[in-house]
Amino acid sequence: MIATGRLAQIGIALALCALAGAAWYAVKSPLVALAFGLLPFAALFVLRFPVVMVIGFVVFSLFRIHEAYPQLYPLRIPQLLALGAFATIGYQLLTRRLVPFLTPELKVALVFFALVTVQVLFASNVGLAMGFWTGTYSKIAIMVFAIAWLVRNPGDLALIARVFVIAGLLVAIVAIQNKLNGIGLVEGTRVTIGRSFGSMLGDPNDLALVLLFPTSFAAAMVIRRGMSVTDRILGAVVLAALVTGVLYTQSRGGLLGLTAVCGVYAWNRTRNKVLLIAAGAVAGGILFILAGVGDRSVVAASEGIDESSMGRIYAWEAAFYMALSNPMTGVGLDNFYANYFFYSSHWDGKNHAVHSTWFGVLAESGFLGFAVFSTLVWVTARLSMRSVAAAALLSPQGGGAWIGAVREALLAGLAGFVVSGTFLTQGFIWPVYILLALIVAADRITPTPEAERD
C-alpha cells in the first residue's frame, strides 16, 4: 500500500511539473510560477484532508454559500472543491486507504441509485432527466459512499457538525438581512436569497429546507452533555438565527420540520409523553402564528392558487396520475414540472411544482421507485434509532460526547426530513442522502483513547 502511495505521489508531482512547464511556455507570466509554486501545497492539502474536501464540496452544493454571497462567484469555489473532492477520493481508493464496504442501508441506496439511473433512459424528456442526473444526482450518489467510507473518528463528526452549523449561520444572516431590508420578498412577506439571479435559495421553501438542515446539529451542541462552552455558545447563537430564518420563510414544511426536530430532543428527555404531545401542539400553533402563515395564506389566495392548499392537492393528484401512467419508471428525474399540464385536472395557465417529497418521488420514479425510496428511509431511520440508543451508553471521554451528539442530531434531522417532506420537495437533492451517509458512518464510530480533533 505504501509503495502504491509513493508511486501515486510521484506521478502527481510529475504531472504538476509538466503542467507548470506548459503553462509557463503558453503564458510567460511570473504569476504562473507563483501559482504552480503553491499548487503542490494545495495538492498536499487535498490528499491529506479528504474529509475536509468532501464536506466542503457538500456544503457549497447544499447551502449555496456562493449564491448567498455572490462576491464568491468569480472564485469558482464549488468547481475547485469538486475537483479536490473527486481527486482525494480517487487517491484514497488508489492507495487503498479507503476501504469500501456496504451496509444494508447502503445496499438499498445503491439499488435506488441504479434504478433512478436506468429510469433516466425512459424519462418523458430524456434531456431534462440526463441534465439533472449528470449535474446533481450522480454527484450525490458518489458523495453518499464517500462520506460513509471516509468519516472514521469522533473528530470527523465534530468537524462536520461545526461546519454545517457555521454554514447555516452564514445563510441565516443573509436571510434575516433580506427580510429586514425587504429584499427579494415573495408574496410581500416571505424571505428569499438570490431570487433576482435565479438562485436555488430564491424559493422560500428551498431556503427553509437549507436552514432546517443544520438546526438539529446546532440544537445538539446546546443540549448534549460533554460539549465545550464555546460549542454551546456557537450552537445557541446559530440555533436562534436558523429558527428566525425559517420563520421568515413562512414555509409550512419548514415549520413542520422545525417542530419535528425539536420533538425528537424533547421526546428523549421527557417522561410524560402525553403532556409533551399537548405542549408540542401548542408550540406548533405558536410557531405558525409567529411565522405569519395565516397572513401569507390570505395573500396567496388573492394572487393565485400555486401556494394555496388546493394548489398542492392538484399537484399531488397530477403526481399520482404520472405514476399510474408510468408505474415502473415514472416520468423521469426533474420531469414533474414539464409534465404537469398533461396530468393535472386543473389548469390555470402555467405548470407548477409538486411541493412534496413523497409525491415527487412517486411521480418521477413510479411506484417501484417510491417503494425502494420508502424502504431506504425506513432502514435508515431504524439504524439511526438503534445508534442513538447505543450512544446513551457511551462515556463522554474519547469523543463519546460528539458521537452521541451527532447521532441524535442525525435522528432529529431525519425526523425533520420525513415530516417536512409533506410540503418540501427533497427526494432527489442533498439533505436526506447526507443524513443517510452520516448515519451509517456515525454508527460505525466508537470512542477512542486518542484526543478528538478540535
Separation, N- and C-terminal Cα atoms: 29 Å
Gross morphology: globular
Q: Count the helices. How many?
A: 19
Largest sheet data: none
Low-confidence stretches: 298-306
Task: Please estimate the helix content.
Answer: over 70%
Strand content range: under 5%
Please identify the oligomeric state. single chain
> Any idea what the radius of gyration is?
23 Å
By secondary-structure content and strand pairing, the structural class works out as mainly alpha
Q: Report the average pLDDT across residues.
A: 83
Compute the number of strand runs.
0
Which H/E pattern describes the elements?
HHHHHHHHHHHHHHHHHHH
Return the domain count.
1
Q: In brief, what are we looking at here?
A:
By secondary structure, this protein is mainly α. It has 19 helices and no strands. The longest helix has 35 residues, at 357-391.
List the helices and strands and how they pair.
Blueprint: H1 2-27, H2 30-48, H3 50-63, H4 65-68, H5 77-94, H6 104-120, H7 126-150, H8 154-181, H9 204-212, H10 215-223, H11 229-249, H12 252-267, H13 273-291, H14 293-303, H15 309-325, H16 336-343, H17 357-391, H18 400-420, H19 430-444
Helix pairs in contact: 1-2, 2-5, 3-5, 3-7, 3-8, 6-7, 6-17, 7-19, 8-11, 8-18, 9-11, 9-12, 10-11, 10-12, 10-18, 11-13, 12-13, 12-18, 15-16, 15-17, 17-18, 17-19, 18-19
